């Protein structure tokens, strides 16, 4: 592994065994996962979690939080004497915000439990076709049917020991699947807690905690539910790379006198365990009522990997597309096999750029025949967003993970917790909005001490966003855009003789924009571009609070926005279709009475 940071800034100078973990489990960590020594976070969290205390972990992205909670649980479960059985039901519940994260944690569990065949992992998540899954499990295709189960199959195969779940589908089963046995539930883990709450799952989480009798005031198993495991105390763990009011509230209602890991004294006020039983669904803005509050993120530092190089790309609206393609080309040609993730604000924008990058062919000399053109970017391109079929999401997730060099175009659905190995560059083509989101997006690179660079696209009118990030201790340097554009040869010339000062008048920009507009004028691409344009404006309008001041839709020149989608049409034409779409959306929303959560998820 190439590392920029010293290993002692990432890894602890002790062994997994010295933390008190079972020797067979340590072997699994080494042989199956390739982990020789614990990371610093693991070295801090594992002994505390083994001791049975409630824990709140706030550590930078990519520091190994998953093993920090899974290893102690497996240690205890494999140690139970007599061994746990199927009929004992579920012992541990890992709640995660997205389906991809659900699969990721489940896959790690599969590896770790290889030698502990009596501990059964399972997962449930929205979007799965239940009958198809049942059939697949019955036939035993893919997985070992006896060990790896989904809760939708609980009627057929009760007894998942460690369950990974997204909140919505879990609640459904808690209410409706009578054979879901949870009287022995000992651990509840909230992974990426802030994202679970941001997605509007606060009410579901409260209901889950109530149904499982695991709110802070009920943290010891109910007296009348005596089982052979009732001597064990409930233990809840909460993990998050960023903190906010809602996470603080969840901590207060679910954690009993927790040990804080990764939190310095500045970031919290004393006595987190003060009981407050408000609602996670409501906005927690009245701090005075909550004395045990973690200080708000607005003044705090965010945990960004120290070795990450963060740059911003200052580019006027009309040249955005050309600059994106140019930077991608530059990165892909400069390095042997880079993996790049590009974030967009909407599903339609992902679809448009995906088709463009997968199909756009190009030649330096515009006179050449179609056969002589080459792909503008020559690497495998993937896309990931919330409007895709579950099966396609799964294929993308696995595919991009496996590739050595590839491009992933995605919405924020991929911003949290996903661990794609060897991602070298993150491009935030559309701005992330909240600074929290910025941190999570860049956290997909520079994981565990590896190198990583990030690029944030900003228009000249949006430069105040840098100050917003600065408030959170995040500092970016300017990307030398003109220098990079100058390095592209044009019509056979290696360098331009004349020094170009303006980006818009740069011969490379003009030439590429012309080629793009011609390509996008084809019917299929044009339709994708128009949809992307409309949804992009909607997302831009949806910036909240303080950010509205920076990302002002009225400062946008619609013609320039259209140009950034390779559209030649008059802005008024496109603007009209946008207005019609906005009206239609408002009408639909009124009719359906869409919840806050659905508004958030539809964006991703
Ligand atoms: N002890 C270890 N030794 C080597 N690699 C490790 C170790 N622990 C974890 N890793 C690897 O480090 C990477 C990051 O781990 P993980 O996904 O758990 O981080 P995280 O802190 O949960 O990140 P995020 O906040 O983005 O969710 C993974 O690729 C994982 O396999």
TrEMBL record:
<dbReference type="InterPro" id="IPR011545">
    <property type="entry name" value="DEAD/DEAH_box_helicase_dom"/>
</dbReference>
<dbReference type="InterPro" id="IPR000629">
    <property type="entry name" value="RNA-helicase_DEAD-box_CS"/>
</dbReference>
<dbReference type="Pfam" id="PF00271">
    <property type="entry name" value="Helicase_C"/>
</dbReference>
<keyword id="KW-0067">ATP-binding</keyword>
<dbReference type="InterPro" id="IPR025313">
    <property type="entry name" value="SPB4-like_CTE"/>
</dbReference>
<dbReference type="GO" id="GO:0003724">
    <property type="term" value="F:RNA helicase activity"/>
</dbReference>
<feature type="domain" description="Helicase C-terminal">
    <location>
        <begin position="323"/>
        <end position="496"/>
    </location>
</feature>
<feature type="short sequence motif" description="Q motif">
    <location>
        <begin position="14"/>
        <end position="43"/>
    </location>
</feature>
<comment type="similarity">
    <text>Belongs to the DEAD box helicase family.</text>
</comment>
<keyword id="KW-0694">RNA-binding</keyword>
<protein>
    <recommendedName>
        <fullName>ATP-dependent RNA helicase</fullName>
        <ecNumber>3.6.4.13</ecNumber>
    </recommendedName>
</protein>
<dbReference type="InterPro" id="IPR014014">
    <property type="entry name" value="RNA_helicase_DEAD_Q_motif"/>
</dbReference>
<dbReference type="GO" id="GO:0005524">
    <property type="term" value="F:ATP binding"/>
</dbReference>
<dbReference type="Pfam" id="PF13959">
    <property type="entry name" value="CTE_SPB4"/>
</dbReference>
<feature type="compositionally biased region" description="Basic residues">
    <location>
        <begin position="582"/>
        <end position="604"/>
    </location>
</feature>
<dbReference type="GO" id="GO:0003723">
    <property type="term" value="F:RNA binding"/>
</dbReference>
<dbReference type="InterPro" id="IPR001650">
    <property type="entry name" value="Helicase_C-like"/>
</dbReference>
<keyword id="KW-0547">Nucleotide-binding</keyword>
<dbReference type="InterPro" id="IPR027417">
    <property type="entry name" value="P-loop_NTPase"/>
</dbReference>
<feature type="region of interest" description="Disordered">
    <location>
        <begin position="576"/>
        <end position="604"/>
    </location>
</feature>
<feature type="domain" description="DEAD-box RNA helicase Q">
    <location>
        <begin position="14"/>
        <end position="43"/>
    </location>
</feature>
<keyword id="KW-0347">Helicase</keyword>
<keyword id="KW-0378">Hydrolase</keyword>
<dbReference type="Pfam" id="PF00270">
    <property type="entry name" value="DEAD"/>
</dbReference>
<dbReference type="InterPro" id="IPR014001">
    <property type="entry name" value="Helicase_ATP-bd"/>
</dbReference>
<dbReference type="GO" id="GO:0016787">
    <property type="term" value="F:hydrolase activity"/>
</dbReference>
<comment type="function">
    <text>RNA helicase.</text>
</comment>
<feature type="domain" description="Helicase ATP-binding">
    <location>
        <begin position="46"/>
        <end position="261"/>
    </location>
</feature>
